[in-house]
Amino acid sequence: MTDKEKQAIFQDLYELYQEGELQGEAASWMKAxxxxxxxxxxxxxxxxxxxxGQNDYDELKRMxxxxxxxxxxxxxxxxxxTVWFYF
Length: 87
Description:
The chain has three helices and no strands. By secondary structure, the chain is an all-alpha fold. Helix 1 (3-19) crosses helix 2 (25-47).
């Protein structure tokens, strides 16, 4: 396993390790590699701002636009059918 792979695994498991959720071999592996890879995890956590809120907001805006377009289509279709059946 390369150092990049080890660092990726360490970063993925770091939160669980801090919370004490890891047991057995995983916990001992994390403890053995803590000094080697811990600096990468701290730098990554500070440099990446949370953007999940923005992604959720954009998704809600798209869904809102889609629903409004469906309402508009339904109203136009209703008017067209009413006129078509009436005459």
